[in-house]
Write a structure and sequence with these properties.
Length: 575
């Protein structure tokens, strides 16, 4: 058999870090001897697992090898075959730089290294890029964020509870606990082992457990002691972390993300940061692809809807390889800067920049159960009783991680009928639309509110109501107020990004509530930090929304008057 028809695998290659820790990797090499550009993936989820390394990362190793790339997949520090202790994010910048330096010294590497992968694997790319290591030519972070406080762990003061606990239950704790068994006291082993078994048997009970953080959870997942901290959650939005370091680099980015992924807001922030490095659009080497995908579900089914054959990540493998080809050549890719999937029409579109040029904010004001183009005269209000302990509003659709990585069953566009029958969910609905209306970009709500508790959460969800009266959730957000008054005060809610064509004959709906559980942790409404609250700390409260000319609560929709060019698929360009 000719070497050109063969590939080689180097198994369990040892790579020394600057502190002496040995991280292990597998290398897939073209059959011929030679020096090749290397595609590097650094994973916390086992380098031998094809589901994570290829399917979720949307890159086929055989296609890369045939194109003349070597592929190296490494277990990150403290995970599986690699030495050291795993502390999320802490050493990824240094370990990434050391791995790249080692690769460039190997005879199978031509000195060019590119990185790829999704979720935490995407985070390892972002953190490595902050140090601008020599030889890092390009990165392709998929379904990931720029920061790892806000948009990963927290959202506008609230904690991404279900995601963090499921990350521990499904991905981190089983391997991590086995590695630590001999190093921790027997009583901690017993507590941690028992808790993990309980969590795996009944994740819903894990979400409901109070207080959220205690010695048992820390024994199981030591890093949880840093995540479930109310002060960190409150300050996270203002912590820019390493954004300035990302701006200082010139490494090209292919940012691929999903409208229904919990990391969408962080991914769009990442693209905005790297896009801002260039003044002229034609010089921008970065690309943005926004599909309908959710975390762990790259298919053409999202939520309750089949979105068409073009909706999956099929084609993203070749798209990444073409992007790496262009980065190595030092030229911008031969594609539009932005390609995005629009629900409602279930079509792909090309755009010259992000945010979309020509987008205009349309303001709709809240009225008595209505959305209107102008506020009603005076001031009126609607209220509800919020009981976040006994009856929180259940997470139903949206960019969430429930019930876990391998399902994604509760994310995406979901029927809101059950939610909208609740007394603690307020509905504001527009008149029937006379024409199609495209909404693509950041949706925001500005509300005048009050509450009788010492603290409060406010949630907002944008829905489409079809001609049959069926309400489907599109995007939702939250804001946590550590202090609130019984007098009306103005709050701004970042509802989130969306792309949807509201069809003629449909209506626009805004839901307002005060919980979204278990996606977010519950606010006890007593002023006690939510991560430390016990059942005794929860109190019911009356929440009120005001509207009218003197308290003009409203929603801002990014409207696109002239549709961007339609594509058959996101990967149909540049072939």
């Amino acid at each position: 058999m000719s070497p050109s028809n063969c590939f080689r695998i180097l198994d369990s290659v040892e790579i020394a870090m600057r502190d002496g820790a040995i991280l292990r990797a597998n290398a897939w090499l073209p059959g011929k001897e030679g020096a090749w550009p290397v595609l590097l993936q650094r994973t916390a989820y086992r380098r031998d697992d094809a589901f994570g390394t290829q399917y979720i990362s949307a890159l086929e190793f055989m296609a890369a090898l045939r194109r003349g790339y070597a592929v190296v997949v490494q277990d990150t520090r403290g995970r599986y075959a690699s030495d050291g202790a795993f502390m999320p994010f802490e050493t990824e910048a240094e370990d990434g730089a050391d791995t790249i330096a080692w690769l460039r010294e190997q005879p199978f590497c031509n000195g060019e290294v590119m990185m790829f992968g999704g979720s935490y694997v995407g985070a390892t790319q972002v953190l490595a890029a902050t140090g601008r290591p020599e030889g890092l030519i390009a990165v392709s972070p998929h379904l990931t964020t720029a920061r790892h406080g806000e948009t990963w762990t927290y959202r506008s003061g609230a904690v991404e509870l279900a995601f963090l606990l499921l990350w521990i239950i499904e991905s981190l704790a089983p391997e991590d606990l086995q590695r630590r068994l001999e190093a921790i006291p027997p009583q901690e082993v017993a507590r941690a082992t028992r808790l993990l078994a309980e969590f795996q048997c009944d994740p819903a009970a894990a979400f409901a457990r109070l207080p959220i953080i205690d010695d048992d959870l820390v024994a199981l997942a030591p890093y949880a002691a840093r995540w479930f901290v109310n002060d960190r959650a409150s300050r996270a939005a203002g912590d820019i972390e390493h954004l300035e370091a990302l701006k200082a680099s010139r490494i090209p980015y292919l940012v691929s993300c999903g409208w229904n992924d919990l990391f969408l807001e962080g991914a769009l922030e990442l693209f905005a940061i790297v896009r801002s490095r260039w003044n002229e659009a034609e010089r921008v080497p970065d690309r943005l692809v926004i599909g309908p995908w959710s975390h762990g579900n790259p298919s053409d089914w999202q939520g309750d809807a089949w979105l068409g054959y073009s909706a999956s990540t099929a084609g993203l493998s070749d798209e990444q390889l073409r992007f790496f080809d262009a980065a190595r050549a030092g030229t911008p890719p031969n594609t539009a800067m932005v390609r995005y999937f629009r629900s409602g029409s279930n079509t792909w579109h090309a755009a010259p920049d992000w945010p979309l040029p020509g987008s205009e904010k349309q303001q709709l004001f809240l009225g008595e159960n209505s959305l209107r183009e102008a506020p009603v005269a005076g001031s009126s209000s609607l209220g509800f009783r919020s009981d976040t302990l006994l009856d929180p509003v259940p997470t139903t659709g949206g960019a969430n991680f429930v019930p876990g990585l391998l399902l994604g069953r509760n994310s995406g566009p979901k029927d809101q009928a059950t939610i909208e029958r609740r007394g603690d969910v307020m509905l504001f609905t527009s008149c029937v639309l006379k024409d199609d209306l495209e909404v693509t970009g950041l949706v925001e709500a500005e509300l005048w509110v009050s509450a009788t508790g010492a603290s409060a959460d406010w949630t907002a969800r944008l829905c489409v109501v079809d001609e049959d009266g069926r309400s489907i959730g599109l995007v939702d957000g939250i804001i946590r107020l550590d202090r609130i008054d019984i007098q009306p005060q103005r709050v701004s809610i970042r509802v989130g990004h969306v792309s949807h064509l509201f069809a003629r004959g449909s209506r626009i709906r805004l839901q307002i509530a005060s919980s979204n559980f278990p996606r977010f942790d519950r606010n006890p409404q007593s002023g006690v930090p939510p991560t430390l609250a016990t059942e005794a700390d929860f109190v019911p409260a009356t929440h009120t929304v005001y509207f009218g000319s003197s308290t003009p609560s409203c929603i801002f929709l990014p409207v696109i008057s002239n549709a961007n060019p339609q594509l058959p698929t996101f990967y149909s360009e540049g072939r």
